[in-house]
Each structure stands twice: as C-alpha cells, then as structure tokens.
Amino acid sequence: MTHPFLDLAPLSAARFASIEDRVARLLSTEQNVLIMQGEALLPLEGAIRAAAGPGTTALNVITGPYGQTFGNWLRDCGAKVIDLAVPFHTAVSAEQIRQALAEHPEIDFVSLVHAEAATGNTNPVAEIGPVVREHGALFYLDAVASVGAEPVLVDAWGVDLCVIGAQKAMGGPAGVSAVSVSERAWARMAANPGAPRRSYLSLLDWKERWIDGGRKALPHAPAQLEMLALEACLDRIEADGLDAVMARHARAAAATRAGAVALGAGLEPYVYEAAEAAPVATTLRAPAGVDAAELVAHALASDPALPLAAGGGALAKEMIRVNHYGPDATPGTVRASLTALGTALTEKGLPTDIQPALRAADEAWR
Length: 366
Ligand SMILES: *Cc1c(COP(=O)(O)O)cnc(C)c1O
Known about the structure:
Radius of gyration: 21 Å
CATH topology of the largest domain: Aspartate Aminotransferase, domain 2
CATH class of the largest domain: Alpha Beta
Bound molecules: pyridoxal-5'-phosphate
CATH architecture of the largest domain: 3-Layer(aba) Sandwich
Number of helices: 13
Oligomer: single chain
Shape: globular
Structural class: alpha/beta
Order of helices and strands: HEHEHEHEEEHEHEEHHHHEEHEEHH
Number of strands: 13
Distance between the termini: 48 Å
C-alpha cells in the first residue's frame, strides 16, 4: 500500500518553477522569485548577507523584534547601521523615513518589516516605497506576516528584496519560503565580495545554477513535502481569491479589536490606531494588575486550540496576541477567542460582558 506522503513521485523542475511563478503572481511582481527551502529566516538572512557588506550604510527600521534581528545581521556583515526605532504600539511613517534619509544621504540600503505578527502593527509600505526609491537605496522588506492578509505589491512599491513565508496568513506550512529579487538587487549582490557563495544561504548560487540555466535542473533535491504543501496552499488561495482571503483577515482584526474593547475590564488594543494595526494578528494590552501570560494560559485551559499567545520576551507580562490568521481568520475563532479571554478575566475577578463583546465583533465583521 502506498503511503500518502512518503511514497511520492519525484517533484520535477517544471513543477518547482510553476510554484515559483504562482508566488510571483501573489506578489504582483515580474522579478525573479526564488523559493528557499527553509523557514523564512533562511531568505531573510540570505538576502541581507548577500546585499550588505562593509561598504553598506543601512537604515534599519525597528517596529518589533524582527527589525532588531535584521540590525544584528547587518552589523555582522560589516554594514554601518542607522537604527530608526519607533514604539511597538505604532507604525513608522513615510515622513520619518524621508527625514532619516535626508539626514544620512549615504544610506544605500533600507530594511523594513511590513507587518509584525509579534507586535501587531503594520507599516505603510505603499507610502514608504516611493520615498526609498527616490533616494535610490535598495529596499528590503519582510512581508512574512503581511502576505495573504493585506496587499503586498512588490513592483508597484519598488521593493528590491521581498521575503515571504507560507505559515501566517497564507495558511500554509512553515519550512518553505520565498524571496523576490530585483535586477538592482542581483547587481548589488554580484558586486559584494562577502555575499555567500557555495553555501545554503546563497541566493547567487541559485541564480547561477537555477535561474541562469533556464530553471531546467534543480541544484539539489527539493523539500518535497513542503513544496507540495505550498502548492496546495496556493491552490486554496487562488480558489478563494486573494482579495477574499485578505478581506477575511481584515474582518478578523476589526472584529477582535471591537470585541476586546467591548469586553470591558480594561482590555485595550496594544496598537493605538486601528489603521496601524496588522490584519494578520491583533495584540491586546492586559488590564493593569493582570499578567498576560497567566491570563492566556488560563484562557487556553478551556480550549487549547485557540490561537492565543502572550507576547514574546519582555512583552509576556503585558501583551496578549490573537493570531487570527490562515484557517483561524473566521468569525467562529474570533468569537471563541473573545469568549475565552472574557471568561478568564471574569474568573480573575475582572467582570466582563461577553454577549455585548460578541455582538460588537459580529457587527465589525460585517
Ligand atoms: C512570523 C514572522 C517571521 C517568521 O518567523 P517565525 O517566528 O519562524 O514564524 C518573520 N518575520 C515576521 C515579521 C514574522 O511575523
């Protein structure tokens, strides 16, 4: 008897290339798209190490923990790094980027996270892209937490290196990811003597061995299960329509936000402005005197399948995350998450109004 995911026919180069082409369509780009066979950290790190070096001056925008990681990689590559950090409860503005570029005309690389699932904010890339393009810097964007939840328009926004992963709003697997690469980015990498070569991190190796050869032969065995899962995930997005998938995420965010406020008990959106809140996940500030991690553990005890988490690291005490993405971007999951949080708060001695919260959520969903 054949096993459904062990006894697989080989995955052809043509099929691998067709999956890349579908990811390119998802990102509205004519650029090369490389699928990288690892979690999104692989292309995120590979793209920075390829494009940045001792001659680089990078503007590194920090709106959450990933921005901090990118700054560390950039410094490790020998780049001069100018950090632009904004409080995690807001977004960066195009004007802040414009000012930073004007103060440091030598900046030739800008790294930005589009949406941060970890902090629940999203940055206005449509406004920032033209500012970066006008300055002439290479534009690196982490769109892992935005793709599928809100528009990601690589060519229209002038993004040179855009990294995605399937595990958030695309509702797919972790373990396979992709990066789009502009002609300018390829040129920058080719001129960088420190860019990884003969390495699993190397984008240039893939260009040489895969793209330049017309995508006829894969450089090494594809991660077959992950590729098939990514393909199935694209099938599902294309069947539902990307716009419908994004609308579900926007509704889930609006409903969670409205419902959490209506619960009372002092629960507040962590990101003050709704326009700066990411559609992929909603972060909430625990009421004064309530430990967020304890509250989440309590809520999960009633239903461990809910997409609730406490903030990471230093945010664990104050931040509650409702990860309403992928298959969890539904009214049912939003309602169940609000009910579990409301019940846990009531049991902690902070009475909540669950029915009005659910009504507010339903209304916001519509
Ligand atoms: C989720 C996410 C990633 C991928 O990291 P994991 O923690 O492995 O899921 C990368 N960047 C951003 C902005 C993310 O939200």
